[in-house]
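Subject: Sanity check before I submit

Could someone independently write out the structure tokens for this chain? I want to compare against mine line by line before I put it in a report. The sequence has 230 residues.
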Amino acid sequence: MSDQRFAVIGLGQFGSAIAKNLSKRGAEVLAIDSSLEKVENLKDEVSHAVALDATDKKALLAQNIQDVDAVVVAIGENFQGLLLTTFLLMELKVKRIIARAMDSDQRKILEKMGITEILSPEDEVGGNVAEMLINPEVVMCIQLPDDYEIVEVKAPSEICGRNLEDIGLRQKYKLNLVTLLRKQEGSTSEGTKDYHIIGVPDSKTVIEKTDIIVLFGLTKNIERFLEINK
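---
Independent answer below. Compare away.
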């Protein structure tokens, strides 16, 4: 159960999937769209669903949107509306803003505005985005049948400097380590393009603080691992 609060603006297929998945994970979700029909369709699946114009600063303030943990701007067809909404959220000093870009030009514009978390079409899996919102240390998540998933996770500080035998992923957490991604020496990039795959680590492999670990297991066990090692 999460005690986090999120807002999702834009309730198309993508935004609705994020809102539903966040709600299923126990988060409090404020779902916003200008379409009353879309709001009505989602109102029973989230904490709050409101029809309003997200380019209206007073309307956003009335929902106390500045107090949520993160806002996903999932507006797909109206890029001008997405830009103005994002700008207002920045003005309101929202802690974390995740915006949707439909192509590379839109991504560049959002980056120029100072938005660092940008969702592209290839990222558009509601469950994946929900996982990354609930657990910011998750880089990627692939949800599988029967409540299993594969996740790329930034190495938690509690396990850095320890070897895999000592950490006991399988024994303590019932998780399997698929592989490790390790940052190339001298790289200062925050993305994963400067990482290389270690292969199949052995029990003596020591986790470094910039590593990304790839885990396979039940969702509840992955959540337990992340919670214990925060």
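---
OP: Matches mine. For the report I'm noting this point. DSSP finds nine helices and eleven strands in the chain.
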